[in-house]
């Protein structure tokens, strides 16, 4: 697992692993020259075939690993076995790999070490493949070569301009300025070009940084009525109240707690439940005609 900072700046780390390598004392032969013989029990196949009669005219054929040669098809007399590997042909070795995480690498990208997997006699060693997993960052979210962040501002900043700083992934302090007179709407997004992630293998080219603004409004009754009137004189004029033709009913807006749900929805649920019960007992109900 690597941090977003590591993927931005690049990183070199060391990875220790244990793997099988050919025994240097016997060159992977397991013993003296000519000491290796074909296993007589399995005839060099490494497996034994067993046939069991289940019933007259019915037999079952089973295959199992040869216990004499452990599936290798070869045996070495104990006196001729290599003392270092004990006839196993390979020994354990600790290997230190130097892992280079380049700037701009992405989540899920692979780093391959060719030929560094376990060795075995007569077999080409495979590769070791590391899969990068990106940790979550508290400030930034990555989208390709672009970065996204959310910043909270007050109402006065949204209307009158602002300035704020943040620490980038390389440790730089970035100062963001927005001029007075330009309004920031709640949820709007502004871009800082060239401050995103570096491109892989072209680190001098960078994506963009997108800042989403969360405008914090003041609490209820935060200002006196006198000051509120003065504030209204400074703000753009509100739209005129439309002329009402005929009778009209005046209602009040109240605060609504989204966690409680709506009463209308609950009544609708109860109606649906009773309808379901009636339809289940009385048979099919009346359906609306489709046009």
From TrEMBL:
Entry GO terms, CC: membrane
Keyword set, alphabetical order: Acetylation, Chaperone, Lipoprotein, Membrane, Metal-binding, Methylation, Phosphoprotein, Prenylation, Repeat, Zinc, Zinc-finger
Signal sequence extent: none
Main location: membrane
Stretches for region Disordered: 248-291
Zn finger region (CR-type): 10-94
Tagged with keyword Repeat: yes
One GO MF term attached to the UniProt entry: zinc ion binding
Entry membrane topology: Lipid-anchor
Subcellular location: Membrane
InterPro entries: DnaJ_C (IPR002939), DNJA1/2-like (IPR044713), HSP40/DnaJ_pept-bd (IPR008971), HSP_DnaJ_Cys-rich_dom (IPR001305), HSP_DnaJ_Cys-rich_dom_sf (IPR036410)
Domain CR-type: 10-94
One GO term (biological process): protein folding
Family matches, as PANTHER family: DNAJ-LIKE-2, ISOFORM A-RELATED (PTHR43888)
Protein name, as recorded: DNJA2 protein
Recorded name of the encoding gene: Dnaja2_0
């Amino acid at each position: 697992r690597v941090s977003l900072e590591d993927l931005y700046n690049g990183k070199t780390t060391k990875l220790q692993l244990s793997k099988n390598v050919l025994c240097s004392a016997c060159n992977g032969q397991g013993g003296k020259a000519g000491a290796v013989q074909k296993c007589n029990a399995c005839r060099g196949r490494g497996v034994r075939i067993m046939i069991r009669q289940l019933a007259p005219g019915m037999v079952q054929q089973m295959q199992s690993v040869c216990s004499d040669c452990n599936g290798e098809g070869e045996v070495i007399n104990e006196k001729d076995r290599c003392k270092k590997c004990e006839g196993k042909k390979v020994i354990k070795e600790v290997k230190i790999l130097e892992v280079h995480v380049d700037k701009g690498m992405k989540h899920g990208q692979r780093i391959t070490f060719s030929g560094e997997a376990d060795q075995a006699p007569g077999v080409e060693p495979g590769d070791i493949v590391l899969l990068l997993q990106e940790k979550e960052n508290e400030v930034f979210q990555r989208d390709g070569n672009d970065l996204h962040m959310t910043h909270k501002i007050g109402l006065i900043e949204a209307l009158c301009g602002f300035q704020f700083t943040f620490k980038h992934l390389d440790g730089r302090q970035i100062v963001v300025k927005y001029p007075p007179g330009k309004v920031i709407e709640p949820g709007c997004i502004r871009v800082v070009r060239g401050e995103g992630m570096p491109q892989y293998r072209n680190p001098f080219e960078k994506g963009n940084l997108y800042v989403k603004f969360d405008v914090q409004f003041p609490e209820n009754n935060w200002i006196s009525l006198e000051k509120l009137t003065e504030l209204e004189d400074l703000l753009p004029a509100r739209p005129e109240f439309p002329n009402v033709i005929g009778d009209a009913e005046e209602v009040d807006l109240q605060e609504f707690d989204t966690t409680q749900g709506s009463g209308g929805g609950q009544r609708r649920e109860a109606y649906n439940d009773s309808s379901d019960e009636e339809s289940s007992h009385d048979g099919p109900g009346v359906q609306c005609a489709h046009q």
